[in-house]
Design brief:
Length: 116
């Protein structure tokens, strides 16, 4: 609808729905914003998809909780192989760069048992 009236959307800009309803394409409900501003607005409106509801997600909340509970016990590459993801994905989960909304009760790090 935006393009029909205003022309092409400029690079690095997105059309935002002011009421958060993507099906409401009335012109008075649309505005141009940057991608980062659009994401911020989605979070503020509680309509952002985090974790498993996201279409790009490869892990479930339960799998992420398992990864977090086993810091210091199960190596990163073991989880990566098991779930078919890159090791950096597991590292990002453990460093809370991703999946920050998941809390697996990891206030203290478990120690790997000593061998021998």
């Amino acid at each position: 609808m935006w393009e029909a009236v205003h022309g092409p959307v400029p690079k690095r800009m997105e059309v935002d729905h002011l009421d958060g309803d993507a099906s409401n394409n009335r012109l008075d409900n649309l505005q141009l914003v940057t991608g980062s501003e659009n994401r911020r607005l989605q979070r503020a409106r509680n309509i952002a998809k985090f974790g498993s509801p996201s279409s790009q997600c490869k892990l479930s909340v339960a799998e992420v909780e398992a990864v977090l509970r086993t810091v210091g016990i199960v190596p990163t590459k073991v989880w990566a192989r098991r779930y078919g993801v890159n090791s950096s994905t597991i590292r990002c989960i453990r460093k809370k760069k991703t999946w920050r909304h998941v809390d697996a009760g990891t206030t203290c790090r478990a120690k790997r048992p000593k061998r021998g």
